[in-house]
TrEMBL record:
Keywords assigned by UniProt, alphabetized: Hydrolase, Metal-binding, Zinc
Annotated source species: Xylaria multiplex
Cofactor(s) the protein requires to work: Zn(2+)
Similarity-based family: Belongs to the metallo-beta-lactamase superfamily.
The UniProt record lists the keyword Transport: no
Gene Ontology MF annotations: hydrolase activity; metal ion binding
Domain Metallo-beta-lactamase: 43-332
Xref: CDD domains: metallo-hydrolase-like_MBL-fold
The protein's name: Metallo-beta-lactamase domain-containing protein
Length: 349
């Protein structure tokens, strides 16, 4: 990929981090060999991406896209069966949540003006997946179109096997009339048929003909194609500025984003591809533990596939780095949050 030759017609976006709550993770459940006494309170990051195109559903001069919504500010909004699991992640910080961060930005709760109003200023929300610490409060976005990975709506309705029963999810979590699933991914690795097969794997929900979702014009051409070293990507706006990256293994429908912010700079938003930068670098491995049913599991639905996704990320980023800088940000990177407060909205990466 020769990034430099594309500069004349290239489209770039801006990206800002958003505080969207914090949760506490036991180290040994996420990192192999982790300290069983260590618990880290980490962010559940969201991101505002602004694309220089006419907005889809409102006035203005940019399309506002939010990636992930973090933690609900009202924990009673989660399904009853989910709440004991959430209690195990205390202390939990819910203020500011994603909506408050959009309105006031970082560090100034007394700001007089609203920077962005989630009720009317956000065009698109893309969720990396629908675990409780990423789903946030979708009702804060009553005019927004939601985009999720294939199978997500079925997952919310019916669950995905014994480790993810339907009782853990709110069936009406996302607005049916304004939610669109990305296309199913063809020709995935045949070595992981259990992950993709029924009855545990959720099925794709087609967009109904009467949908109220408002998508970019490029949506009618969305398909999974290789880009750089990434085998399955969707060019979201059709201009190579924002790519959705298929990143299976953690939870069905899990996706990442790759955004281009300048001629030679990309940001890779890794969601929950892993939960510690030491795993991303290869210094540590994904923790595995007793699943309570006589087997071994991790925080991923399929640990082997999660490892394969990490290898694909490494290959894709390595290819891009031949011509450009790539910054990788994980959803729960405490160190990144602490050292980059100036890059939170209204600041920029």
């Amino acid at each position: 990929m020769a990034v430099a030759t594309e500069s004349e017609n290239a489209v770039y976006v801006t990206i800002s981090a958003l505080d969207a709550g914090q949760i506490t993770l036991p180290d040994h459940l996420f990192v192999a060999g982790g300290n069983p006494e260590l618990r880290n309170t980490v962010p559940s990051l969201s991101f505002l991406i602004q694309h220089p195109s006419p907005p889809i559903s409102r006035g203005g001069n940019v399309t506002n896209l939010v990636f992930d919504l973090g933690v609900k500010r009202d924990l009673t909004g989660y399904a009853l069966a989910q709440r004991p699991l959430i209690a195990a992640r205390e202390p939990i910080i819910t203020d500011p949540d994603c909506g408050a961060s959009l309105r006031k930005g970082v560090g100034d709760k007394d700001r007089d003006e609203e920077l962005l109003d989630p009720e009317k200023d956000v065009d698109l929300v893309i969720l990396s997946h629908v675990h409780w610490d990423h789903i946030g409060t979708p009702t804060d976005f009553p005019s927004t179109t939601f985009v999720v990975g294939s199978g997500t709506l079925d997952l919310l309705r019916n669950g995905a096997g014994p480790l993810y029963p339907a009782e853990l999810f709110n069936t009406d979590e996302l607005p049916a009339s304004r939610t669109v699933e990305l296309p199913p991914v063809p020709n995935r690795d045949s070595g992981f048929q259990k992950y993709y097969a029924r009855p545990n794997a959720p099925v794709h929900t087609p967009t109904p003909a009467d949908t109220q979702a408002k998508l970019p014009p490029s949506a009618n051409k969305w398909s999974w194609q290789p880009f750089s070293g990434f085998p399955r990507t969707i060019d979201l706006f059709g201009d190579k500025s924002v790519y959705v990256i298929d990143s299976p293994g953690h939870l069905h429908g899990h996706v990442n984003l790759l955004v281009r912010i300048s001629e030679k700079k990309y940001v890779y938003l890794g969601g929950d591809c892993c939960h510690d930068t030491r795993i991303l670098s290869g210094e540590k491995e994904i923790a595995e533990y007793d699943d309570g049913r006589g087997g071994i599991r991790s925080v991923h639905v399929d640990t082997g596939l999660a490892r394969k996704t990490l290898a694909e990320i490494d290959e894709g980023v390595s290819q891009l780095r031949k011509d450009a800088d790539v910054e990788i940000v994980l959803a729960h990177d405490k160190g990144w949050r602490e050292h980059n407060r100036h890059r939170f909205w209204p600041g920029k990466l």
